[in-house]
Fold this protein.
Amino acid sequence: MKRLITMVVALISGAALAGGFELKGDAAKGETQYKAMCVACHGEKGDGNGPAGAALTPKPTNFTAPESAARLTDEYTYKVIKEGGAAVGKSPLMVSWAGSMKDDELRNVAAYVLKLKGPAAPAKKK
């Protein structure tokens, strides 16, 4: 019995370590939600220049900027959309969309945002 419990714990631990976050979003579907709910602040192109974004301090994230690319991972992007900016130490002006969208819609928007992401900035030389 002890051996069985040890094997089960090992399997569960291994699965937890091996398993990472999988976004599984559909960017094409996410584009519609993005245009309805995100463009006002983040802009049509995701450059942070939406009409409502002009009045915000700090400015909305520019998804196309190289300095944003490194932090815009699947999991981070999903978490910000789902839980809001404060959940990741960013502006509380970025609201949580969890109450307005189903989980698959959140994932679709995240997938679309990631399509807007620009290339990462080159590494700084030492």
